[in-house]
């Protein structure tokens, strides 16, 4: 158990809908990262927050947004969902914001299915 | 820019035989390198990491990896495979960017 929690575990929704994925980092970790894992794209970095502020952006679509709250939990919002958004979404956390050399601890993921 | 190539998408070994999972990286800066493992329907677990200290890195569950700068490689090895090692393994690089860049993964099958 990494100490990172994600809810819900599974989410099934329809095209055009909006969903929110939630992540609680390990105790003491200030950085939160979001990743998408799909069969065709593999594991891709989406976005990073550190202590409430956005620090880095990866391949995140404009339909997707995220935020980190004062209690350090983070939410990933996915809107106008398409079939291709079906994937496993991981949250990871680390102590520092730098990334390089810093171990990221991953949650169990949220499996999103868009029908 | 940074990238990582896992040379085998599938590796199959017999229980008790050595494991070798190959990884080459590309980085404009001195990289940090990681191996993560993902068991079915589970999250990613860190096996080991290299951050410019000793080039031979020991990880959990008997795994180790050697950083070879001249070959830009970071291959993962284990002397004797166990059935519980069956999983997908990801080689990961982190250089100047804050994010991790993942390889495409190697599926390890362990035969009885």
Please, could you describe this protein's structure?
The complex is a heterodimer of chains A (115) and B (112). Chain A is mainly β. Chain A has no helices and eleven strands. Chain A has strands at residues 5-7, 10-13, 19-24, 31-38, 42-50, 53-57, 64-68, 74-78, 87-94, 105-106, 110-114. In chain A, strands 2, 4, 5, 6, 9, 10 and 11 form a seven-stranded mixed sheet that branches. Chain A has a four-stranded antiparallel sheet with strand order 1-3-8-7, with no helix packed on it. Chain B is an all-beta fold. Chain B has no helices and twelve strands. In chain B, strands 2, 5, 6, 10, 11 and 12 form a six-stranded mixed sheet that branches. Chain B has a four-stranded antiparallel sheet with strand order 3-9-8-7, with no helix packed on it. In chain B, strands 1-4 form a two-stranded antiparallel sheet. The mean pLDDT of chain B is 91. At the A-B interface, strand 5 and strand 10 of A face strand 5, strand 6 and strand 11 of B.
Number of helices in the DSSP assignment of chain B: 0
Detail the poorly predicted runs of chain B.
none
Overall morphology of chain A: globular
β-strand number of chain A: 11
**H and E order of chain B:** EEEEEEEEEEEE
Order of helices and strands of chain A: EEEEEEEEEEE
Largest sheet of chain A: 7 strands, mixed
Radius of gyration of chain A: 13 Å
Q: How many strand segments of chain B?
A: 12
Give the N-terminus to C-terminus distance of chain B in angstroms. 41 Å
Q: How big a fraction of the residues of chain A is strand?
A: over 45%
The largest sheet of chain B, given as strand count, sense and whether it forms a barrel, is: 6 strands, mixed
Structural class of chain A: mainly beta
Mean pLDDT of chain A: 92
Largest interface: A-B, 26 and 24 residues
Helix content of chain A: under 10%
Distance between the termini of chain A: 31 Å
Computed CA radius of gyration of chain B, to the nearest angstrom: 13 Å
């Amino acid at each position: 158990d990494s100490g990172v929690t994600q809810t819900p575990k599974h989410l099934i929704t329809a095209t055009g809908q909006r969903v929110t994925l939630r992540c609680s980092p390990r105790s003491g970790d200030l950085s939160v990262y979001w990743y998408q894992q799909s069969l065709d794209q593999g594991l891709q970095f989406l976005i990073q927050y550190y202590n409430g502020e956005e620090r880095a952006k990866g391949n995140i679509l404009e339909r997707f947004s995220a935020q980190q709250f004062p209690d350090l939990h983070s939410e990933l919002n996915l809107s106008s969902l398409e079939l291709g958004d079906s994937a496993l979404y991981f949250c990871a956390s680390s102590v520092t914001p730098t990334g390089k050399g810093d171990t990221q601890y991953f949650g169990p993921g949220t499996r999103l299915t868009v029908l | 820019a940074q990238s990582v190539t896992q040379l085998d998408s599938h590796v199959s070994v017999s229980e008790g035989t050595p494991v070798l999972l190959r990884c080459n990286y590309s980085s404009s800066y001195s990289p940090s390198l990681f191996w993560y493992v993902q068991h079915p329907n589970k999250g990613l677990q860190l096996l080991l990491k290299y951050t410019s200290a000793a080039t031979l890195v020991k990880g959990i569950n008997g795994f180790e990896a050697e950083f070879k700068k001249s070959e830009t490689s970071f291959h993962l090895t284990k002397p004797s495979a166990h059935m519980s090692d069956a999983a997908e393994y990801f080689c990961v690089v982190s250089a100047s960017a804050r994010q991790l860049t993942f390889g495409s993964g190697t599926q390890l099958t362990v035969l009885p």
